[in-house]
Amino acid sequence: MVRAMKPAFPLLLPALVAGLIAVAYPAAAGDKVRPVVVELFTSQGCNSCPPADTLLGQLASRKDVLAMSLPITYWDMLGWKDTLGSDANTRRQKAYADLMKRGGIYTPQVVVDGVDDIVGSREQKIEAAITARQADESTVPVSLGVVDGLLHVSIGGGKAAAPATVWLFDVLDQKTVTITGGENQGHTLTYRNVVRDVRAIGTWKGEPLAFDLPKNDGVPAHDGIAVLVQQGNYGRIIGAAMLSGAEFQAAH
Fold it and tell me: Residue 56: how many CA atoms within 13 Å on its side-chain side?
C-alpha cells in the first residue's frame, strides 16, 4: 500500500554555497544528450517501498537515466528511523507537492524530470514517462570534472526558459541496510545512488556558466555527485550530469 502523509514542512530553498567561483565557461563540444532524471522518494520504514527501490536500482544502471534515491524522514515514527533519511530530501519532496498542487506527500513516489509524479513501483508508467521526456530537445549541456582538487561544473548556454536553479547533490553510490524494526523488520535492502544532501549552488540565466567547488565538502557518507539544472526552483529539469562514486573518487 502506498503511504501518504500531509506533514507541515515549510518550503525552503537551501542557501547558496559560500565562496563559489562562477565564470563564463562553454560546455565541451560533442556533449551527449542529457539523461532523464528519475528521483525516488522512499523510506526504510515503508513496507510498500522495497519494490520501488529495486526498480530504482535497475534504472541506476542505465546510461540514458540519472536515477537517485531520496530517503525521507517522516515515516521514522513507524518504528524504524531511516538510517539514510534526510530533511533536505523531505523538503524537496514537499516542494514538488506544493508546485504540482498535490494534497500531500507519499512513498514510494517517483518524479521524472521534475514534471511527472508516479507511484514508484509502477514500472510501465515510469518507462513511458522516461520515453516521453527523451523526446524533449530543450536541454542544456552539463559537464563535470575534477581539476586540481576542485569540482568543476560547466553549464552551456541554451534556448530553454530561464532562469533555472543549479542543484548539487551529494550521492552515495550504494548502501545495504539490515532493517531491525518497523514494517520492514528482518529485511536487508540495498539502495542505489542515495542522496545524502542537496543544495542550490547558483542560477543559470541562459548564458554559459561554471563553478569551481571543493571536491570534499564535509557531507558524510557520500562518494559521488550529481548536478541538475531545473527551471524555476522545482520545475522542469533541462540539464543533468553525474559523476559516480568510482569516477568521483578516482579523479584528482
Answer: 34
